[in-house]
Sequence to fold (584 residues):
Amino acid sequence: MNLAKLRITSATTRRKLEGSLFIAPWAIGFLVFVAFPLAYSLYMSFQQVRITATGINTTPVGLLYYREILFADGGLLYDDLVPFLREAVLMIPIILIFSLLTAILLNVRFGGRMIFRVIFFLPVIFASGQIIQEFIAQGEGQLIILQGSQLERILSDYVPRSWGEPLRSILGSFVLVLWSSGVQILIFLAGRQTIPASVYEAARIDGADPWSTFWKITLPGLSPFLLLNLIYTVVDLFTFPSNPIISKVTTENYGVSSALAWIYFMIVLLFLGLALLLYRRASRSMGIGAIR
Amino acid sequence: MRLRLWRRASRLHAMDGFQKVLLLLMIVLSVFMLLPIVYIFNHAFKPYHELFVYPPTFFVKEPVLQNWNELVAVTARSTVPMVRYLFNSVFISGLAVLLVTAASALCAYPLAKHRFPGYKLVFAAIILTLMFAPEVVQIPRYLVVSQLGIMNTYFGHLLPLMAMPIGVFLLKQFMDQIPNALLEAARIDGANEFTVFLRIVIPVCKPAVATIAILAFQSSWGNTESSALFMMDEEMKSFAFYLSTLTNNLANNVAMQGAAAVAALILFVPNLIVFVILQGKVIATMAHSGIK
Fold:
């Protein structure tokens, strides 16, 4: 009897041990290189930090830096934050809708589909890199590089000026949307393939048109992936290295930088919370998620 | 040859109107997707007077090899042979891809499929840290690395990369979609947790795993931070760091732009190669990943 009991406990502890072993390598790295440094930077945001040859000297300053950033000096935070937030509010839904539609199109059977899938996934390798940053640096959120191209000339020649200007700015941002939706397209494509073909067949037999098939089957089926993409896009946009606020986080005045980073983090968190709330609202009113 | 052409033409005829429009749309979109790559390849061959044209052009008009000669001349002057930097980078990136992917997947599996006590807390922590820009934690990371005594070692390059929250996040969301019945069936057949993980979870999530591998390669290959902060000896620094110092240290901004353009291309090509190798896994396996 004792033996049986021992075996049961050892089985459960074994399971627990196994689970911990699975998580351990990542968790240790996480604690040492992410969690601890973050906590440390929070601590530093209440300190004046001076880096000297012998080490790091700190003097507590309380909430001074937070007050400075939030209330005194608009130049550090608000001047860049407000236009950036406005852009993000526009960009996120466009990226999501564009990548959703592209993924659905890429799922349709047509010649060279595989090649197009590869091409649309391609931005993953340069989106985070220097190339895009260089492009963006040349124009504010738009692509100056298009000005020299043939397309620009066609636009200015054949389209009236009052229409050409907005068209051009949309085009410039549109290319940015294209380039930042590689992973999202992939996620939607993978998600689309989790919906079995038999469901579509059943809908067709029941006489459903493509329009209602999209709303009643495809969209609800993709809703977990929609959520995933929403979070991914927000994070991707807000932690982009060329982001105006992140570029102000330097190692020079570390106390102020830490405070700025934490304030920014709170704003991002708030933004994500709002986005999730909106998503939940919208999905409930449309009945998404009813299937799962 | 003629037969093949004829067959292709007939295939084009066989498409209906919708598919033709779709094909055209996809071609237009993929031209935009390919622009950055065209740009980076052309940029490396531009003579000086073309490098500084504003607005910049995509295509080189008079291709020259002068930039390459410039880079070769500069690297010949360096104290450490370039091969050493290259070896460091290849070694670090190769290991980083393996370790990061393995650690992320191992951590994501219990999070998705074993609701152990406190898993919500762990997952919340991961999502929160997604929102932090790496710049914030530079100084504390430096302290951690120096305290651990891994300055000037390959561990100093590798370990800070290990905790990639986006990896765990993406994989966990994908693993959520695996039906429990699939895992149950394997367990009944006598598979232990590790076998289930290796034989079922990983193959089913291959698109996500390959995406993480691509992202991990990019972040380690282009990483200049760990070389700048944690490595004292010139022999331990990475190729990306070396190439960036070639152009950054000069007072004159114009002088080395040609070499910089070539360096950007050299840094980009491995990304492209890894992408080409791994994308097959991402895209081909999505079709029959066995979910449902």
Summary: The mean pLDDT of chain A is 76. Strands of chain A lie at 47-51, 56-60.
